[in-house]
Amino acid sequence: MNRTVVITGANRGIGLELTRHYVAQGDQVICVCRRSSAELESIAHQVISGIDVSEAADVSRLADEIGDQTIDILINNAGIFTSESLENMDFGEVKRQFSVNTLAPLRITWQLLGNLTSGSKVIMITSRMGSMGDNSSGGYYGYRASKAALNAIGVSLAYDLAPQGISVALLHPGFVQTRMVKFSGDVTPEEAAAGLAQRIEELTSETSGCFRHANGDALPW
Questions:
Q1: CA-to-CA distance for 83 and 140, rounded, in angstroms?
Q2: Could you tell me if 76 and 105 are in contact, meaning their C-beta atoms sit under 8 angstroms apart?
Q3: Cβ contacts of residue 215 below 8 Å, gap of 6+?
Q4: Which residues of 158-173 are buried (b: 16+ CB within 10 A; e: fewer)?
Q5: Per residue in 48-98, pLDDT tens?
Q6: What is the pLDDT of residue 175?
Q7: Which tens digit of pLDDT belongs to each residue from 6-58?
Q8: By the 8 A CB rule, do 41 and 33 touch?
Q9: What is the spatial distance between Cα 89 and Cα 77, in angstroms, rounded to a whole number?
C-alpha cells in the first residue's frame, strides 16, 4: 500500500502488533517510543526513541525527526493506566494520566498537522472506560476521566479537520492482554491490532468522530 503510518507507544503490546500489521501490508511505519527494542528495530522502517509524549520538547523533536514526510495514518496509541478509588486516591497519578492519555495525543496531532493532508486519518486509541453511558461500576478516576476528555478532543478534531479532508476515529481496542493491565485481558494484542486496523480502513469522512470498539460496535458516549 506504501502509506506512511506513525504509531506512538510502538515498542510493545498493541503498538508493536500494529507495527507488524502495517509493515506486512507494505506500509512505511515510523515507530515512536520511550525505549526501543531489538524486536522493534528489526521490523520498523524508522524508530524514533527517547520520546516522552507528555513532554513538549520531546514532541517537538519528534516533529523535527519526521520532517516533511506526509503522514497517511497517525495512531496515538501511547497511554498509561492506574487505578484510583475514593479509598485509595492519588491525585499525582490522576494528573499523570491526563498528561499522557489526553494532552499528549492532542499535542502530537497539533504538532504534526503540517504532515497531514486530505485523506489522512488520525486515530485515538481510547477506551470504553471513558464512556459515561457504559460506566456501571465507578472508580478508576484518572483513567476514566482522561479517556473521556480524549474522546471530547477527538470529536472536536473531527469537526476542525473535516475541511482539510482529514478523518478522526476514537477506537477502543478491547480488554487487551498487555503489561498495562498485568496481562489480565481477554483479547490478545494480535486480535486487537487486527480489529483496530479494520476499523481504520473503514474510516471515512462520513464516519469521522466515531467512537467504536475494535470489533465494530458503536460505543455510547
A1: 5
A2: yes
A3: 174, 195
A4: beebeeeebbbbbbbb
A5: 999 999 999 999 999 999 999 999 999 999 999 999 999 999 999 999 999
A6: 81
A7: 999 999 999 999 999 999 999 999 999 999 998 999 999 999 999 999 999 99
A8: no
A9: 26
For the record, the C-alpha cell of 86 comes out as 475514593
Give the position of cell 478534531. 157
Cell 502509506, residue? 3
